[in-house]
Amino acid sequence: MKYLLMILTSLACTITAAWAGTDDAPTVLSNAEAIKLVQTHADYVWTLIAAALVFFMQAGFALVEAGFTRAKNAVNIMMKNLMDFSMGSLFYWAIGFGLMFGTTNGFFGTNGFFLSDFKVGGDPWVLAFWMFQVVFAATAATIVSGAMAERTKFTGYLVYSAVISALIYPIFGSWAWGSLFHGSGWLEGLGFIDFAGSTVVHSVGGWSALAGAIVLGPRLGKYTKDGGIKPILGHNIPLAALGVFILWIGWFGFNPGSTTAANKDIAMIFVNTNLAAAAGCVVAMIVSWLKFGKPEVGMSLNGALAGLVGITAGCANVTPGSSIIIGAIAGCLVFFSVLFFDKIKVDDPVGAVSVHGVCGAWGTLAAGLFNIGGPTMKIVSTQCIGIVSCFAWTFCTAFILFKLISGTIGLRVPPEEEVEGLDSTEHGGNAYPDFSPNH
Amino acid sequence: MKYLLMILTSLACTITAAWAGTDDAPTVLSNAEAIKLVQTHADYVWTLIAAALVFFMQAGFALVEAGFTRAKNAVNIMMKNLMDFSMGSLFYWAIGFGLMFGTTNGFFGTNGFFLSDFKVGGDPWVLAFWMFQVVFAATAATIVSGAMAERTKFTGYLVYSAVISALIYPIFGSWAWGSLFHGSGWLEGLGFIDFAGSTVVHSVGGWSALAGAIVLGPRLGKYTKDGGIKPILGHNIPLAALGVFILWIGWFGFNPGSTTAANKDIAMIFVNTNLAAAAGCVVAMIVSWLKFGKPEVGMSLNGALAGLVGITAGCANVTPGSSIIIGAIAGCLVFFSVLFFDKIKVDDPVGAVSVHGVCGAWGTLAAGLFNIGGPTMKIVSTQCIGIVSCFAWTFCTAFILFKLISGTIGLRVPPEEEVEGLDSTEHGGNAYPDFSPNH
Amino acid sequence: MKYLLMILTSLACTITAAWAGTDDAPTVLSNAEAIKLVQTHADYVWTLIAAALVFFMQAGFALVEAGFTRAKNAVNIMMKNLMDFSMGSLFYWAIGFGLMFGTTNGFFGTNGFFLSDFKVGGDPWVLAFWMFQVVFAATAATIVSGAMAERTKFTGYLVYSAVISALIYPIFGSWAWGSLFHGSGWLEGLGFIDFAGSTVVHSVGGWSALAGAIVLGPRLGKYTKDGGIKPILGHNIPLAALGVFILWIGWFGFNPGSTTAANKDIAMIFVNTNLAAAAGCVVAMIVSWLKFGKPEVGMSLNGALAGLVGITAGCANVTPGSSIIIGAIAGCLVFFSVLFFDKIKVDDPVGAVSVHGVCGAWGTLAAGLFNIGGPTMKIVSTQCIGIVSCFAWTFCTAFILFKLISGTIGLRVPPEEEVEGLDSTEHGGNAYPDFSPNH
Prior knowledge:
Three copies of one chain form a homotrimer.
Chain A: H1 2-20, H2 28-67, H3 74-101, H4 125-147, H5 154-177, H6 186-190, H7 198-216, H8 237-254, H9 265-292, H10 297-312, H11 320-343, H12 352-369, H13 377-407, H14 415-420, H15 422-427
């Protein structure tokens, strides 16, 4: 009887084929395969468009950093942002991706270097995935640039930028996000939640930035001998604001793109991302108004970024209402954090340590506290383990790296070059030769 | 016999399953479900990417407004644009979306506040739809900002921006676009055509802007006592032009994204959007050349925007050839409208009333006149009802709102603050501290 | 027996329909149709989003050109970029698209003018395809603008921009890319590889630019009488850098979008595009460092663009490793090419001839040399035929065109207008009226 039915079904297919007038007529099975393929195409399109949006964040970071610093260093800042992406792409291709997503022993990956796991004619998903990950790696690297602006030697910058892209970021990433091939990272194994990288990307960037700012020391004239703090104003606020708008749209790739799949989950992630940013921006403005007497633009812009960083870990597993709370707290936190680091004389021209380090840690904790499934003690303590291990790994390795650079090729430009500006001394350039900046 | 066949079919499925080596093997029905799901995923991806593009228009509006005004108010303009999106997001989440798309009595919606209709584990389409709509609401709000630039008190701005996002825009929107849940708006019921919002978004923004500009009065020095008009030049034309390019790309989300579905219709909407913008830009340049003797950049930029606003209502139901005509007329209209409002001493620094109010009305009429299905008398008169009711509702409510603000917390800064610039007086900031603007 | 089975199958479908509670229940065939439709929707979404990204390149070109030239010509540059896209859209709609993709005799197309092949209710794919192609045409046109900056008469610019969009670009394009309808171009027939247009778009732009720069002659003061070269500095490096970032993201539409289909191939194209750009940027920086003693920003920015142009032809048929080599060579080539053209006194303010002409030719050759299927003698020689025929066609027609314009309405502004700046003399405008540029 069974065999009879198989014959019947098979014959029915033949007939269907005859109807369609083709030899390879569709069957239930071929349709099921075709559906999977169309979904796969949608996954490719979504993941790669999201990667393009995250790439655009490089422009956002460049504009925020340039806008918040002085005209005499704008060329240097553009060069740094261009180079950390360009060199970072090459180093992440050669080394970083393999360490981060290769078959892992729990601590680092061991294959996939030079994209060698992609064979012509093979499944190109590894390429789509690499493309999405390389723009993340570059984000971690470029965060550091802001905190070390206006006084870092360009050669020193190139070295630390390469090491962060090739080693520091990928190794921590492998702990939390595990392998594309086989095995899982030790933090991942504990159940650590960091959907799009509040810790993996932003805290790694932020704590590296902290180490860098400490090793470098403050800009000349920032802190007076009598303990005063002299604000050094950014030279182009519209550019900085444009940078924040670009980062905001980039985050619509960063967070929802982290599904690396075209599915319904991206809707809530979009909404959460947007509401947290909005809440962070509004709260930071209000706090600045209460404390300074006027709604301050720099704090408001950083408030939006703080909300975005804060929601990055939990964007897929908290509700929209919780996102507003998470963003609002981030907007408050970034304000006081910026003042705190200024008070202890860690000179961070753009507030990168506060936005990415502190709010990254907050977001990681919040992903546990506001978890849709309920914040169990185990989840919250795992989040804390992730936060602490990120700080320990990143701050220590980055600190050693910066000390090594400082003791060898040099990390800081001489004072006279800092006064003249890095554009002319490091690059023989001038960002605005038709205008005469008044420094 | 029927039961025998059911058994046969069922058995055939069992066999197919055995072939595929899995228990839940595909069937015709499961395939049909899966196809629907993949299409749904494509709808989510398309709608949300379009939302991201529309979000980017916030940056475009900020740059156009800043570029077309003076350097001393650039910080204020960035703050306003940042805040109308941030606060607008929160107010639209709490109030606006429910009023606009909740179950409606024809005049306003009554549920969906605080996104309360989304339950964890439920269908997240309401979130995707909200995300697309919140960026529309923010567009209406931010249009107003341009017409009231360089003299509006920041607190007054925050209040009217909130009221427009929470009440004025959503209530008119519910008339024309109806409910996501149940019921339809009264204008929608008449057959009103406004596919992507020439009236719903742009005219609402434009007529609110008109009310605001009238209540505020012109900037100091704009109109001389002897009846002369003194042009106040924009301080950064490249930024304004970049803003227009950003708005143009944003419109590729605004118009085709209004399908909120990944389908073939988006192709014609893209083409229509682009051709209308191109025609508007070219015609505005030609008219400015004929009238001023030289091709003027501000008019050309506004011509592109006029074409975009003009095609927004009819983008899905007119041909590409008609789009060129619609855009060309819009480009001509915006030129004379800008001169007209200047002549009657309504000071609109960026031409927002002409671009969004006047060309929004034109676009709405044009959607009827050039309707692919033919312009019946009924369609054209319905379009006129929509245009008039939008003006009546928006101008009146906005006028009252601005008068109320003016009479209480104040809408306009004192003259000495206006002369000094809003950046320092309202925000304690300076957009370009390294340069010395020559006002 | 066969007929019995047909009846059985048909009955089974009826039953399935009854189960689903609808009259048009799914069948294997209807499912197969539906799958094709969903894939088609994904193709539309991908192609049109890619078109939007390529459109954004117009902003990138505008910023690079404005940033690399003087403040007194910034309005003129914005006007040119706005107009070549706007007029180009209209001319490509009326004439260019038909010549390029109409049914072809091997040398030009003969239908599709005014998008007349699209009938309401017909298949809108021609519209999606047109939208993707119009942004390519505008790219070719806008490349020319950079090489002729700061001295070209606006009326002359409008004429040549129209002719390039309507004739020069589409006719060469039809040789290499053939028809959407019927027939193939003669170069296409030889097996010429130019996936996304290293030759079709970039070399056409670059060689037209070369003809224009030669006919125009250098800017006043660029070359001194004793044979010296006086650098004329760009007035806004952050804008230029933003332009390069925008071009880079735009290229993620340009290259992978050239599949005009949502498929897996886009992954490798993304990766190749990114790696070539990164390599070009790093190598150009290194070479400038070795030659000038300092890492120069203009060369580094052009190095990224060189890598992007270089990979455009071969992005779909070379490996990621090869892409790095192709980009690196392009980064080196652009450096020496810029110096070469300066030495022979062809004044190209932004390096457009080197970036687009020279590196476009290199990329076309490289697509043959690094071809995944192996570089046969036939492939390489066909690539050379394509490169040479592009130069011959483009340089000759463009040279004649520029000579004609020069002899009639005039191509160059009078010296006193060039000294004063084109913003005031050609447009009655001023890009930065709040600041006093120091020319």
